[in-house]
Amino acid sequence: MIKIKKLLKLEGVEFNQFYRLPLSNPINKELNDCLLAYAYECLKNNENIDFYNPNLIHYIRATETEFFNKKDGEYCEKEYAASSNYIEIMNLLRDNNLIDDASLETFKESLENTQGHFRENDIGEFISASKLSSWISGEVEYGGNKYFKLDGSWYVYRESLDQNLNEYFKNFDFENFAPTLPLKSWIKKNEGLYNLSFKNNEGFIVGDRAYLNYIEIADLIKVTDDKIYLYHIKKGLGQDTRALINQINNSARFLSYSEDEESIEGLKSYYKSISNKHYSGGEITIKEKRNIKTLSEDDFIKLFKSKRKISFVFGYGSNSELSIQEEIIASNSRIAKLSLIYIIRDMKRTDYELLFERILLDE
């Protein structure tokens, strides 16, 4: 709550547009029922929603998540679950008898009985166990008022919040915060295959699902003579926006706060992770002036220790004819809009620039 209050003060969005409901407020149960009904409808329609462990800032660093039902002993595990969407996780849980979606009532009951917890490394303890009913965030209307749930808390907001948020984005010039050269079109591929398609493209290193201290530094790394672009990419402006923003925040924090020795050891570990994930455990390759060259561990470290400016890129695939500004304003997700304002504010406090790119989605 304090973070959101500071955010809205700093960015000129009036704080009195919404407030958090006390956990003891009896309306919370009705709001949760409305949200679970919406989640069930989305599942039946194969539509994704915001579905993350409430401890999101650590959950996106999780290497392993375990879903379990203490009552009947059923369980299953998922590596890097934060990279999977709501439908993918629901399908996994259904296949392992942890979710019953035969009716709304059985769905709600299984969300109450099934929990999820995670760990941030392969030998660590599982933490932050919580019922899956608390993993769902979203927005509902009830009794003539509008509410949104974020990380376990309900907020009520006024109609004027939309006007305040949209006014902020109307005054933000996205065209001045875009990479010099756009990425190629996103053609009939999932996110992983799209990222992999940049392997040995001019200046690119594939970093998708490669981790540094359990943080995904970038889906794609692009190296130029004077810059290093760290791309974080998702399809669409929706339920994945908050996770994408938290990835950028975690990545920027690590690069900002690491001491030289820690940073070098971290970059060595990151090089190995990229190598194992995308370059068969050997040296990373990169195309430079139309020639494929190898990039040793030392070369990789020197890149990040050079005077090249590091830029984070918030990239999303879309086939909309609207501008980025218009598309964000048209979005119905107030959570996504608040998250975007949050990352814009936070990145101003670092030495890195934040850029935005909409990738042409051709499906």
Question: What does this entry look like structurally?
Answer:
This protein is an alpha+beta fold and 363 residues long. The protein folds into 2 domains: 157 residues, no CATH class; 199 residues, no CATH class. Helices cover 37% and strands 26% of the residues. The chain has 12 helices and 19 strands. It has a 6-stranded mixed sheet. Strands 1-9-8-7-2 form a 5-stranded antiparallel sheet, with helices on one face. Helix 8 packs parallel to helix 12 and helix 9 crosses helix 10. The N terminus is likely disordered. Pfam families: DUF6119. InterPro entries: CHP04141 (IPR026487).
Strands, helices and their partners?
Layout: H1 2-11, E1 18-20, H2 27-44, E2 50-51, H3 56-59, E3 64-68, E4 75-79, H4 86-95, H5 104-113, E5 115-119, E6 127-131, E7 136-142, E8 145-150, E9 153-157, H6 160-170, E10 186-187, H7 191-196, E11 204-206, E12 211-212, E13 215-216, E14 220-223, E15 227-235, H8 241-257, H9 260-278, E16 284-288, E17 291-295, H10 297-305, E18 309-318, H11 324-330, H12 334-347, E19 353-362
